[in-house]
Amino acid sequence: MKEIKNIIFDLGGVLLNLDYFRTIREFQKLGIENFEKLYSQKNQSSVFDDFETGKINPQDFISNIDTFSKKKTDEKDIIVAWNAMLLDLPPERLNFIKSLKSKYRIFLLSNTNEIHIDSFEKRLQSNNLLQQYYNCFEGLYYSCRIGLRKPDLNCFNFVLKTKKLLPRETLFIDDSIQHIKGATEAGMQAVLLEKNASIIQIVPDIIQSIHR
Predict the structure, then answer these.
(1) Of 63, 68, 131, 185, which is the most exposed, with the fewest CB atoms less than 10 Å away?
(2) How far is CA 127 from CA 34, 123, 124, 133, 148, in A?
(3) pTM surpassing 0.85?
(4) What total number of domains does the chain contain?
């Protein structure tokens, strides 16, 4: 590995704990029995792509989801089901990222949407962690706000060019293999965060391996 000067973190599954099966189960209760075929970590229907790139707004997304259901659903129930996958963001992960800022430029790049952003940021605010979360990063890049999503090469290049980062000096950490492949194609050094692994454990090991 080359010398690392910049680190880009994914959000869901890397910093924020997720459980996709909770959302699948909640939508099954609403009459969408095949939701896992419509949306998963590796693949998803075009309506989710459109929502994650800001092409449709939350109301349009909810209306689209409603068409998949076999029974009448309430807007609030759809939002609750959609947000069910969002778990906690452990404060120790934020503290760890803060500790990296003295040596590295730190960024976040996430495929996400306005409903999820609203939900997890309100939860952080209620736990007095929102400002700490903001302060961890030099730049926060949400797919729905930049109009680009991983693993599109343009998404990675957008962040690199916007912040004038050299790809070979940039480490990208994500829990989805297709995103790792996209980052590698962009010239970055990319590491897959395996299930149940923690950035607190793997990042120091990666950094140590660079200086051996």
Answers:
(1) 131
(2) 35, 6, 5, 11, 30
(3) yes
(4) 2
